[in-house]
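Exercise 7 asks you to align residues with tokens for two separate proteins.
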Amino acid sequence: MSDETSRNPERPDFINDNPPTGFGVVAKPLSLLERVFDRGEVRKGLMLVALALVWEGYARWLDNSLLFPTFSDTALAFWQGLVSGNLLNATVVSVTTLLQGYVLGLACAALLTAFATATRVGADLLDTLTAMFNPLPSIALLPLAMIWFGLGNGSIVFVLVHAVMWSVALNTHTGFRSVSQTWRMVGQNYGLSRFAYVTKILIPGALPSILTGLKIGWAFAWRALIAAELVFGVSSSGGGLGWFIFENKNLLEIPGVFAGLLMVIVFGLVVENLVFRTLEQRTIRRWGMQS
């Protein structure tokens, strides 16, 4: 027997026929109540109900409908606006105008981003323009837009394009620059064409930043639209949600004003949870790029 074997003798195998008991179930199944509260939409719905109750309680305590109507009065005005068609028609007008400006803003942002991605001059131009115009409030351009395009939808669309273009272009270009160098080398090694390289490497890698830019651009455009319609309510005979709010304010129909604001909030929640969240779940979360 060698010295190595004597120092490390071979140990016989040992099989335990009586394993220890009493550890129990490691993963305890959730109860029905825990499964219900585990759903995000249920928790958020309860938060909205709690906010509505706080609203109702504070308004009743204040007891001044001209300053702060109750949630029940606002809900009644909201329902009456839907039944009469006034609130629904105003929402359709606003959404139609919003889509026009949003799509045109996305097209301009795509052109700027493509130029910035292709050339160094384009990148410097995009950085300079975004530093100049991105901090500029879109509604501040409305007086100039009214002079250039008149008292029509053209002025509002111009303001919306400004609200959308810079945030989307900046986030998209930042996302392109942050794509992993490994991904870029993989695309080059596969010999992808420039179009395939952009669609299969750059866009998927930059998609989280692109979606962030889309959401920020939409939020900016939605706020700028309502503000612009409030101004246009003075000089036009109709309009969208901004005009609906302005008209009810002039008539001292404060529940109607809050109903218009509630529609703005509801539409924002619908777009966020049905459009952008669904897009995130089917892309970046499905691909494991976001938890």
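Second protein for Exercise 7:
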Amino acid sequence: MADTKAFDSAVEILSEDIRAVLKNIPDSKKNTVQEIRIRTNKPLALSDGASTVFTDDKGKIMYTMNDRNFIVSQRSIYDTFRRLCDYSVYSRQDEIKNGFITVKGGHRVGLCGTAVLTDGKISALNDISSMNVRIARQIFGVSEEIINHLYPFDSGILIAGMPSSGKTTLLRDLARSLSMGIGCHIMRTAVIDERGELSGTYSGSACNDMGLSDVLNGYPKGEGIIHAVRAMSPQIIICDELGTYEDCQLVAQGFNAGATVIASIHAGSYQELLRRKQAVELLKTGAFGHIVVLSSSNSPCRIAEFIKVGE
């Protein structure tokens, strides 16, 4: 029987009419959907990473756009947005201006609308016109191959993959396994969860199983790494989505403190990684001795290759 808990959890944040449609789609489809795309006056769209499908107003899956598709109204967008913000838009403004909101369960909702600029920087987002719900899933055991191949760790691990390739899911399971001693000795593990996606923390409680990890929820990566090193003496520091020059300096701090850093970065291949200046700077820190390249989004969390840096 398909496990639809992640999908059902994500659907709960949507407007009543969209929920009614999505609750009726087949369980087999619920188990594979990675993203729910909601656009004003456009068909509701579901993506599994490889293909996009639509539905009618009864939840029947449709493989083409046609006049029987369920169309998302502006009212549905408005109602969903208010639900995302727990009916307090002001309290979520810091997230909104960055273009996404993380909700209970670790689901991340990307937002598009009209930017409000203050001194040349985005200070708010008005007239929301589309949303992308990225469904956070726990898949236990996907970190086993990395632990079997690289443990005991002699250096940090950089996990490279395209969007929807399973980077966050893999990091989540690594945190659980390493902190619990699954396939290894128990290791003091600190998770810097800047956007709340890894732990799915809601009202102070992690909705996802992070084992015995110390979760620094909502911390910017820099402050989180510094705090973890000073207060928690971690052996492992896990964080998601590196990619700026500032990240290079932050990772070096954790590495110089004696912690093994495990992080992810957007890149579809080793060759693409080396074409990104920020990635090259990350490797120059010496924090990463191994690169794990994931396959395409068609097969989330599947490892394409292990690469030892410098060989």
